[in-house]
Amino acid sequence: MRDELTLGMAGDLLMPADRFEPDFAGIFDDLSQLAHFGIWEHAAIPDEVRWSRTMFALCGAADTSCPTMQDMHSLFPAGQFTTLLEEADRFGTASIESQISTAGGDRKWVHVVARSERESERVTRRYGLVRDITVERIALQEVTRLAERDTLTDLRNRASMLARLTDIQDRENAVALLMLDLDGFKDVNDGSGHAAGDHCLTEFSERLKRLRARGRMICRLGGDEFGIILESPDDVGAAEALAQEVRRLAQLPIDWQGGTFQLSASIGIATRPASGRFEADQLIREADLALYAVKARGRNGWQRFTFEMKAEADNRLALLHAARGAIASGEMELHYQPIVDLQSGETIGREGVLRWRRGDGRYLAPHQFRPVFEDIQLAQSIGDLVLDQGLRTLAQWKRQAWPGFLSLNVGPHEFRKPDWAGRLLTSLGRENLTPADLRIEVTEDVLLSKHSGDAASACAALEKAGVRVAFDDFGTGYASLTHLQEFPVSIIKIDRSFIKPLGRSAASPAIVQAICQLATALNKTVIATGVETAAQVSFLRSVGCQIGQGDFFAAAGSNRDGSGLAVSGSGR
């Protein structure tokens, strides 16, 4: 619009000299200089060309020269200005965007508008504007680059990957998509800082840029996640060969401040043959599922997508959806199992164990819906449910003068919450409960999580306040003894896998006895879980185990009908 308006004014200006006032011409030259455009005119009769002062400046020419039409043509790529004039002669006006070469050898982007005048079907005059848009064009190119590129590595980004996959689909070419994560990257980021993490990402990206594969596009999708598109691979093994090379590059040491980082790569592969219709999002999801399968089996490898993976993922999504509904509708509930003094046979406490009540009346134990706990939001919602329901039930029992304690399990995701221990102690006070009324059980999963430091601090605060902390499933982890030394716990719960073989295995009695002796030496209480027979009770008493829990005393029961408190702990 601005060019058209100015062009109309220029039409009045670019007349023979006696047609306009010199002062007005000077003002217009000043205006054109401020607006970064030059004005040109070609009069057919007589055959002469005139330029404004700003046109000379824009073209890098001395304003003492006499421009010609050949000068105009030489500014533009071959034939381009001719085409512009032909279109203006035919339609009255025309415009282009083009690069020009100035007299000084510079390259500029310009927007050119041309207009033609006729008399008796003959072109008598052409004139127009040449506006310098170099700054605008460079800014547009930078905006485009930022929209298509990752700022850290200068690799293509997710939007570029989606656009490329869509283009391949439209052309019905074969494609292989590799989705990969850097194994060990989070440890670098958490342990050495983001600068070290960024260095690893840029170094690995430079290695990927040197990959030699026809039709490949390399993208960084965020964090340590990368994607590689292989268009029209040479054969079915090309994707696997590329995956092997990527693994090799990932395993090369990365130098950093006098030390080295050692990483690896997990890679998922999804493919489509030529003429095979696909959606870009679906192909990405398949490669992600294959990547997930590699991680599940230990990382540092590659895997092709299979339809069994999709069925498993669909089942998992359905399970997560059902779990959300179960939490909202009250189908997730605590059952309570007695914790018994092995010497007196009296119930001294209860453990709240989570159960999922299904529509057919069956109850599922947590190990039967384990994928639900891999979802952080669901895991935290279940943790809130367990604590809220458990404390309310315990308060109800205390009003009935029950003297025992309640033990509740806490998962690793609970310790992601700020001041979790403080809020738990506040909840105890709100229910008129004391710290001695509650025990917290943690497994080695908590101690091995990246929030283990937060977990240790929270458990130390609880122990100091009087809430005793138990190490659950003791003996099943690879570093239980180390954690027992470093983690603030008062209670050791021997896993049922050591209790069940008692009387049938020569090793189990020795292991159980050793754990009991270790606990005594460390001044910690021992609880045996999974007790099922009188013979087991007798042996546990003989080796100094003070407390037991299992179906021999009573199975876990619901408190919905008030029966939870009535469960006997005297044995069968």
Automatic annotation (TrEMBL):
Residues 316-570 form the EAL domain. Coiled coil: none annotated. Pfam families: EAL, GGDEF. Residues 173-307 form the GGDEF domain. InterPro entries: Biofilm_reg_signaling (IPR052155), EAL_dom (IPR001633), EAL_sf (IPR035919), GGDEF_dom (IPR000160), Nucleotide_cyclase (IPR029787), Rev_trsase/Diguanyl_cyclase (IPR043128). PROSITE patterns: EAL (PS50883), GGDEF (PS50887). This is EAL domain-containing protein. The lineage of its organism: Bacteria, Pseudomonadati, Pseudomonadota, Alphaproteobacteria, Hyphomicrobiales.
